[in-house]
Amino acid sequence: MEKEEKVRYSRLKIGERKEGFLKEDQIWQHIHSFFYHGKNSSTYKFGFFKALLETVSDVNVHNELTFDQVFRPFTKIYWNLVVHHKLWQSNNTNRMASVQRVIEEFHQKYEIPDEWNFDRIETAQQDQLIRKVKQAGKINVIGAMFGDFDESIYSFNIKEEKITMNELYVDFFLKFKRILKDINNYQLAMFLEKYNEAEKVSNLLSTVELVSQRKSLKEFENILRQAGVHSCFYCGKELKNNAHVDHFIPWSYIQNDRLWNFVLACQSCNSKKSNKLAPQEAVDRIIARNELMVCEEKYSSYFTNYDEEKILTSYRYSEANGFKHL
Ligand SMILES: [Zn+2]
Q1: What is the CA(305)–ligand 1 centre distance, in A?
Q2: CA 228 to ligand 1 centroid distance, Å
Q3: Among residues 176, 193, 210, which one ends one of the domains?
Q4: Of the residues 180, 210, 240, which one is the last residue of a structural domain?
Q5: Which terminus of the chain has a smaller tally of CB atoms within 10 A, N or C?
Q6: Same domain, 236 and 274
Q7: Residue 76 above 90 pLDDT?
């Protein structure tokens, strides 16, 4: 995109996406142009694309995502890149990217230690930071991505803080998620490598790959325990203090942490399963388990936009993405 065009897009308050069917190769064309054309002054587009990939399985029945949904992983990604890994996010050594500035200011104001990753910050503070990053993202990110995809990827409304994804892109993202995530991480790493000193970019690809992974899943273990889970989801053996929290659909596909995708497993089953898909009969069981939990008021906030289709679709698409069965 030309500079003036970029500015125009970033100031848009409402974006209506172009109607009409797109064939898969036309979407690929948009993807190629997103990754390989245009000059980037910061890492935003890769950070936002990463956040979109991580939240695409959370859309509601109208394919909508709230800004809060998308800017949570976006903020987490940037906190970890900027504070935890000390990576500079713009192509200009004198001008800090505004999201980086928001994060640095917050980091200093509350004297949060550098070695803390995002998950260690207390919830109320996380929410406060997400609100600030969201304000910066409203100007710099939402409209720009809309323009980068030639107005085909989503509609958006800044005031309503809402994105309505093109259904064709939702399917496309789920279908090619693994490879899209990899190319996006690669492009993000290429940018970071260019504008950061050598010692900061060692192991950069794995840093970028794991930047949004949680350090601890204890929170989910506690909830499942309280919900009465005392045995391994896969073999039924009783769990004592040795429970492992397992992503039913592998984390490397789903890329986010939702209660509906967590089960408790013994060590042996957890390590056997690793990055693989559970057998079909287990799919029916996790759907039944979720069915019970979703009815309980106290868990409802963990099941936003959940329905059994989410499990079925993710399972089917993980197969399509090359994940093997146990
Ligand atoms: Zn087991």
Answers
A1: 30
A2: 17
A3: 210
A4: 210
A5: C
A6: yes
A7: yes
